[in-house]
Amino acid sequence: MIFETERLIVRELIPNDLKHFHTMHSNVNVMKFTGDTVKSYQEDEEDIARLISNYRKVDNDFWVWAVVLKKNNQFIGTCALIGNDERQFDPTKYEIGYRLDEPYWNNGFASEITPALINFAFEKFGKTELMAEVDELNKASVKVIEKNMIYLKTQFNPKFKSNDRIYIIRKKMKDQALNSAPAYYHHYIQLVDDKPFEKTLLTNGISIYEEHFEQLESLGNNVYETGKWTVKEIVQHCMDTERIFINRALRFARLDDTELPGYDHDAYVPISRANDKTLSDLLEEYRVVRHASYLFFKGLNSEELERTGIANGKRISVLAIGFILQGHPLHHFNIIRERYFTL
Predict the structure, then answer these.
(1) Number of compact structural domains in the chain
(2) Which helix or strand (DSSP H or E) is residue 318 part of?
(3) Which of 47, 149, 223, 328 has the greatest CB tally within 10 Å of its CB?
(4) CA distance to 129, 130, 207, 323, per residue, from 200 (Å)
(5) Distance between CA atoms of residues 185 and 101, nearest Å
(6) Same structural domain for residues 186 and 315?
(7) Are residues 30 and 119 in the same domain?
(8) What is the pLDDT of residues 118-163, one digit of tens each?
(9) pTM of the model
(10) Could you tell me where the beta strands, DSSP code E, fall in the chain?
(11) Is the predicted pLDDT of residue 301 greater than 90, yes or no?
């Protein structure tokens, strides 16, 4: 067994699977969105033999396994983890895929196998980034993949003559972020859930301010102690910091080895005129800043995320910056909740 879910077992293909393997591949409805044609029995016999032989290859990067029902060991389809083949994929990514025979559609099996396959690829195969390619007309598979991965772009596939939606997902990388950041930033990183941050970066750290907008706005320019920042100044500070850190991430990702200076946030805040602005305008601006950050990180591959540089005398990775951008505003909101909401 390779792995299992509540109702399914994923195992290696065996010669006895050929009958059901061919039944699936000779169904025009199954093959409709694969970019492939229905197969003859001989073609499937050769294909399954090749896939089985791949299991023993040291350098194999084309893994296709059988998916069977737990209750009766019935073959219902295949799932796959595939490296860069002749198609136009980013060679740093591995592609996931599944194919189910038509009698087993609309039973939730695709939704069950997909997250399990992703987890298996991350935990057992050591992959850090995965992709999927789905014909945009294959609405059912688009729906399944969008629940588990992040949409990247749509591109024309010249081999299959289809418009394919490209999705990616990265492994939970919190430990990696902690190990590639100065200890000063660990508190911020620890505040962030250990989830692929393509799923969290767009809103994490900002949405909590929006959810408590009325309570925050009612505070006005009040502070809990003379000399402390107002809520508006805190939001402005978070934006300023994000802009500076994104500049660092950009330069490190592009292999710029210039040592970057630190900055004095205490000097920035008093001259920012944050208190002359509305909280609504500040949060709107913050949302735009974060959206740009999200798009920047969305376009990075695993190698670029792992790149490092020196800022303020300390080495830090691009990945760690992605976590800090989320944890930093959460840190400040925790202070607001503790010390401002009681005013």
Answers:
(1) 2
(2) helix 318-335
(3) 149
(4) 16, 17, 10, 10
(5) 50
(6) yes
(7) yes
(8) 989 988 887 888 899 999 999 999 999 988 888 888 989 887 788 9
(9) 0.69
(10) 3-4, 8-12, 62-69, 75-82, 94-100, 129-135, 150-157, 162-170, 308-311, 314-317
(11) no
